[in-house]
Design goal:
mainly alpha; MetI-like fold; single chain; 0% strand; 299 residues
Length: 299
């Protein structure tokens, strides 16, 4: 019989042998920094600003090559000639003055459009009549090009900033209102019930519950409204010209087109692009970092 069979309940069981201790080094994970060091070009490639700068440099080089092969500065000036005209008009103050006039009108129309969009959207989320009112107006007016309202603006507000601000409000109001309303309606019901349980009503309910929860949609609408307003303003200045003797970037492009200064036409287009990039990558990017990215509301 075996020892386990003959051993009684009080028998002392043999102690198992103790294995010698040893340390086992884990194998490195494939692709990790333990296995290999990341090279300097790979580290630099992680910066978004550097990748975008390389794209811009590539486009500038292609522009220069195509212009030199084409050989007609009247049709397509080279990138270097455009830069020269751009810095000349910056030095003599023409481009900064034109840009300041455009930005002044743009800010006025943009702010007015944002305020009206917030009022309409607040009414839409507060009552059924407000929802019907916003839905009807957006269905009617959102497909209407803002520049088509410029003749009416000239008749109603005359030759001044009022007509330009009128078309800017139209270009900002409807896309922003649609984005805000979509964001408000997508707020989870749990947050809505929380606000109602705390007794929030009216504007307090909108500001404390709906606006923070719908912030990604609101910021997206602000960016879309800015792009629409900037394009509308340049197009209106090209058609309408100077406002009360104060021409903007669009008027600068229009004047140089008439005088066949194509390099300055491209300098004006470069100004439009640079201002758009500045607002997009500085103002709105910082706004996103301080809000929706900071709070983990989007990736």
């Amino acid at each position: 019989m075996s020892d386990t069979a003959t051993a009684g309940p009080g028998a002392i069981r043999p102690t198992p042998p103790i294995r010698p201790e040893y340390e086992r080094i884990p194998e490195p994970i494939a692709g990790s920094s333990i296995e290999r060091r990341v090279s300097l070009p790979q580290r630099l490639w992680q910066y978004a600003w550097l990748r975008k700068a390389l794209i811009l440099i590539f486009l500038a080089v292609m522009w220069e090559i195509v212009a030199r092969l084409q050989g007609n500065d009247l049709l397509l000036p080279s990138f270097t000639a455009t830069l020269q005209a751009f810095f000349e008009d910056i030095g003599n103050g023409i481009i900064p003055g034109r840009a300041a006039n455009s930005v002044d009108i743009l800010v006025k129309g943009y702010v007015a459009g944002v305020v009206l969009a917030f009022v309409l959207t607040s009414l839409a989320v507060s009552s059924q009549l407000g929802r019907d009112f916003l839905s009807t107006l957006t269905s009617m007016l959102n497909p209407l090009p803002p520049i088509a309202l410029l003749p009416l603006g000239l008749l109603w507000f005359g030759l001044g900033q009022g007509s330009l601000i009128f078309v800017l409000i139209h270009s900002v109001l409807w896309p922003l209102a649609l984005n805000m309303y979509t964001g408000f309606t997508s707020v989870p019901e749990t947050l809505r019930m929380t606000g109602r349980n705390y007794g929030l009503r009216g504007l307090r309910y909108v500001f404390l519950i709906l606006v923070p929860a719908a912030l990604p949609s609101i910021i997206a609408g602000l960016k879309i409204g800015w792009a629409f307003a900037w394009r509308t303003l340049i197009a209106a200045e090209l058609v309408f010209g100077a406002s009360s003797g104060r021409g903007g970037v669009g008027w600068y492009i229009f004047q140089n087109r008439n005088e066949l200064y194509t390099d300055r036409v491209f300098a004006g287009l470069m100004t439009v692009i640079l201002l758009g990039l500045l607002v997009e990558n500085v103002l709105f990017r910082q706004l996103e970092r301080r809000t929706i990215l900071k709070w983990g509301m989007t990736r």
